[in-house]
Amino acid sequence: MRRHYRAEGLDESALADEPMAQFDQWFAEAVKSGLDEPNAMVVSTADAEGRPSVRTVLLKGYDRRGFVFYTNHGSRKGAELDANPQVALLFPWHPLARQVIVRGLAARVGRDETAAYFRSRPHGSQLGAWASEQSRPIGSRGELEQRYADLAARYPEDEDVPVPPFWGGYRITPASVEFWQGRENRLHDRLLYEDGAGGWTVRRLQP
């Protein structure tokens, strides 16, 4: 159950000066390749005691400041990020034999930015944010669907849905970003950007 990677290599001379520009290049190539949900990323968090948890979410924006996703602040990941802002992200672009691994600090985005994104969501997704007390137990699927139905009756398609006060975005400001390219004989290319006092530096890691 091993795949032989024969992709072109990743050389230091071809890298952008800073990691978000390099990510932008790779993300555009992932989108162009037809990869299913290239914005899917694995988010790893830990609670105040260091106990880890992990899940897949969708990247909803990125720029020089970092990577943004949205969630219920009362969810497990929301509670863990508030208690321990250290986080790791992984973009698993397996068909391209590529990974991007990010380590950084999470902080909530402003309410204006959250509201702007919330209003761009489909109506059903807006209602879903209200219907689900994310990560909390519930008695049955029927109970969840009834909550949604009650909200749909209260806020029909032509009526604005208010932004939930318990829901919003997190921006991950990267301290390091690794670009991983699969190569033959498991001699993969791993180039790591690290943020330091003098700006970004790049090191090659052994596979």
TrEMBL record:
Binding residue positions for FMN: 55-60, 70-71, 76-77, 99, 134-135, 180, 190
GO MF entries: pyridoxamine phosphate oxidase activity
Keyword entries, A-Z: Flavoprotein, FMN, Oxidoreductase, Pyridoxine biosynthesis
Location of the Pyridoxamine 5'-phosphate oxidase N-terminal domain: 28-149
Cofactor(s) recorded in Swiss-Prot or TrEMBL: FMN
Binding site for substrate: K60, Y117, R121, S125, R186, L187, H188
Pathway membership: Cofactor metabolism; pyridoxal 5'-phosphate salvage; pyridoxal 5'-phosphate from pyridoxamine 5'-phosphate: step 1/1; Cofactor metabolism; pyridoxal 5'-phosphate salvage; pyridoxal 5'-phosphate from pyridoxine 5'-phosphate: step 1/1
Catalytic reaction(s) noted: pyridoxine 5'-phosphate + O2 = pyridoxal 5'-phosphate + H2O2; pyridoxamine 5'-phosphate + O2 + H2O = pyridoxal 5'-phosphate + H2O2 + NH4(+)
Iron found in the keyword field: no
SUPFAM superfamilies, per the entry: FMN-binding split barrel
Gene3D superfamilies tied to this protein: Electron Transport, Fmn-binding Protein, Chain A
Coiled coil start-end: none
Residue ranges of every copy of the Pyridoxine 5'-phosphate oxidase dimerisation C-terminal domain listed in the record: 167-207
InterPro entries: Pyridox_Oxase, Pyridox_Oxase_CS, Pyridox_Oxase_N, Pyridoxamine_oxidase_dimer_C, Split_barrel_FMN-bd
Cofactor mode of binding and number, as noted: Binds 1 FMN per subunit.
Its EC number(s): 1.4.3.5
UniProt cross-references to PANTHER family, sorted A to Z: PYRIDOXINE-5'-PHOSPHATE OXIDASE, PYRIDOXINE-5-PHOSPHATE OXIDASE
Protein family membership: Belongs to the pyridoxamine 5'-phosphate oxidase family.
Subunit structure: Homodimer.
Reported function: Catalyzes the oxidation of either pyridoxine 5'-phosphate (PNP) or pyridoxamine 5'-phosphate (PMP) into pyridoxal 5'-phosphate (PLP).
Protein name: Pyridoxine/pyridoxamine 5'-phosphate oxidase
Organism: Streptacidiphilus alkalitolerans
Name of the coding gene: pdxH
